[in-house]
Amino acid sequence: MLTMIGKRLMFAIPSLIGVVIVTFLLTRALPGDPAAYFAGPAATKEAVEQIRKKLGLDRPLIEQFLRYTNDLAHGDFGNSLTTGQPVATEIRNRLPASAELTLLGLIVSIVIAIPLGVLAATRPGSWIDHLCRITTTAGVSLPVFFTGLVLVYVFYFQLGWSPAPLGRLDVFYSAPPTVTGFYLIDTLIARDFEAWRSALSQLVLPATTLAIFSLAPIARMTRASMLAVLASEFVRTARASGLSPTTVIVTYAFRNAMLPVITTLSMVFSFLLGANVLVEKVFAWPGIGSYAVEALISSDFAPVQGFVLTMAVMYVLLNLVIDILYGVIDPRVRLEG
Amino acid sequence: MKRRDFLKSVSGLAAGAALPAVPQVISSAYADARSETLLIVSEGGPNNLDIHGVGTNVPGYEVSWNCYDRLISHEMKAGPGGVPYYDRDKFKGELAEEFKIDDMSVTFKLKKNAKFHDGTPVTAKDVKWSLDRAVSVGGFPTFQMSAGSLTKPEQFVVIDDYTVRVDFLKKDRLTVPDLAVIVPCIVNSELVKKNASEKDPWGLEFTKQQTAGSGAYKVTKWTAGTEVIMERNEDWVGGPLPKIKRVIWRMVPQAGNRRALLERGDADISYELPFKDFQEMKANGKLNVVSLPFSNGIQYIGMNVTKPPFDNVKVRQAIAYALPYQKIMDAVLFGLGNPMFGAPADKATEVAWPQPHKYNTDMEKAKALLAEAGYANGFETTISFDLNFAGVNEPLCVLVQESLAQLGIKTTINKVPGANWRTELNKKEMPLFTNVFSGWLDYPEYFFYWCYHGNNSVFNTMSYKSAEMDKLIDGARTSAATGDKAAYDTDVKGFVDLAFTDVPRIPLYQPFVNVAMQKNISGYQYWFHRRLDYRALAKG
């Protein structure tokens, strides 16, 4: 197992180097001149040049790149010009916000989609199969920001059930001391139950928005893979041997149907990180998605590079976790590895 | 049966996942905090708490305005609709107890009880250090100081601990007003020097993250891009103690949500909403919506006069007759702007800026002028705009495109990303574009100096050069400084007339700054910088 992890990590190094080079070049190729942007509305040509010098943008590209990689090696991601903060600190502060939201959205989605998919597969053509089809089609065809806005409009503006879409906590609660960065966990550690409730109620709408979006692929994949497994010979044998339907479905069929579902989950997780950008905008969520977009709009290189790099590292880790999960579910993968 | 059990357990799980929204528990402490706290929601937040910093954005100016004091500030007068509006010509002391303007200098006596947030008294050496800093750091602050002929540290002289003299470089009517803008704020010099380094002698890194002033508020928490929390400075002596104890300023990127927050009564104040929203909120009357014209500001269509076809004055006049002015007012602004067109033909030019020009939408005249210029069949061109203000600019450009098509002019719309806009303006290559300019100092010659003078500043976006124009502008600046009213009036009328006959840029309207607030919020004041002044606001 350990050698496999080591090997996978080794393979990841070249792709990370590639990511560093490509993001560096891409951000430099962006139209727009950060020096002119940050010199302010009333800048003269000299003022723009002064700023360019201060930012080190007057140097040749290769020198800028060497300095950038050198800083990276020292754990320095540079400074964001739009927010004025070091990128590493910002990402560290914002990543948990995005992760908490995405994970919760994914969990909600799994809890609904997998049973729905399994049920639809065991009774194809029944009402539950149609329900599955309708929900998934609807979920995937609604753009996330639209679902988000509709939810805000209905549950906050019209009904008043949900709190104001103002980020992770109600404005009058203070954030819990950071342990994990996940407010749901940190508030419990701090034993601040009122804040826990506030954090949870703030999470409900954005997490639901993400869940609705991600229902479709998970449910469809579960259904398809369950159908295939249920039609296979070992299930027929199990049924013929008089095993109870639950044992057949859960122990035999479901475990075998899990592999493609896990693969889909990893893909869905990556989509969700992308979809997050819009959800974060709608719910004023202080996550990394909205941070990266704002940086991109103002040609702010450092956060964009930091964001892409963080994402690349996360994908590498995610793929690793998925590979390990394969091994847990399917002994054949373990043997081959 | 077994299958049914499975179903049951699954639906139970699903119900558990869809957690019901928890209604807000309102404890009494919570309600108290609410009544003394102002919750502001806006699209963007500051990137730097110090206006002297590199690339501080406009929301950062709001922090500086409320957390730092200046030597002097403006008095208020009744503005349009009875809303308090800053009085361009009347000054009052903020840190200065009294000030005396002489022929070639102005002397300030400081309030002896003024203290910085950390308790150290505000003295003359802080004033000198801060003003030296403003003229030395480079970039925007230095540029703004130079607009009032404040360029050298030697101009700021410490007389004693509580007296400072500012020497004039030359006679300039804008020197004293320039000491009342946001930039010449007084910084706690000892505190900042302690945190400065060799590489950063003015301590910009330190003041970026925290306020080091003597102002009415101090920043207690700032999470960039998320929120700014400010608390009242109980020892403020710059004016009467503000009524609002705490200001929470949250960034809410979605305009629709900002409106929802206002209408539900959760947020107290918001700006930067689409005009349509302001218009609707005004109409339904649940909130107070204040709309006031930008002082010394105009949205215009500019033309590059160095290149054909716009180097021909007849073409420019033809365009001025072809613009759909009224449609822009109705469909883009929903009436929230002052028209700057269609003045009656016999109206005399005033000594004022902005004032409307005499062009109106008249396609026949436009066609005739275009034919005279030799473009009877029209031409092809590109109209550019800044995507950061797409809400106004995009529909505006579409209307212009539609209107010009009637003259046979084919226009392609070029959307320039915000980050790129300034670069594009600086290149001065766009043939046709729309933009806004507004000056902090509300004087006609100031506007014209930046926008029409042949020294070709970045705001002379048309690259317009005219010896006659330069003579009039320079003349007005000199006569304003010496107080020669008659000469000044002739020159101002002269340059306004010339700007309208030569039309390198066509003024469309004077934009409004719109602010929506709850009915229980009072004390809103309009300032030249168009941001909020929390010190005058009250709740309840």
UniProtKB/TrEMBL annotation, chain A:
Any one GO molecular function term: dipeptide transmembrane transporter activity
Pfam families per UniProt: BPD_transp_1, BPD_transp_1_N
GO cellular component: plasma membrane
Keyword flag Membrane: yes
Keywords, comma-separated and alphabetical: Cell membrane, Membrane, Transmembrane, Transmembrane helix, Transport
InterPro entries: BPD_transp_1_N, MetI-like, MetI-like_sf
Membrane topology according to the record: Multi-pass membrane protein
Record family assignment: Belongs to the binding-protein-dependent transport system permease family.
Protein name (database record): Peptide ABC transporter permease
Organism, as annotated: Bradyrhizobium manausense
TrEMBL record, chain B:
Chief location category: periplasm
Protein name: ABC transporter substrate-binding protein
Cellular localization per UniProt: Periplasm
Similarity comment: Belongs to the bacterial solute-binding protein 5 family.
Boundaries of every Solute-binding protein family domain copy: 91-457
Origin: domain of life: Bacteria
Listed GO MF terms: peptide transmembrane transporter activity
GO CC terms in record: ATP-binding cassette (ABC) transporter complex; outer membrane-bounded periplasmic space
Coiled coil: none
Keyword Transport listed: yes
Keywords noted in UniProt: Signal, Transport
Lineage, uppermost ranks: Bacteria, Pseudomonadati, Pseudomonadota, Alphaproteobacteria, Hyphomicrobiales
Protein's GO biological process: peptide transport
One Pfam family named in its UniProt record: SBP_bac_5
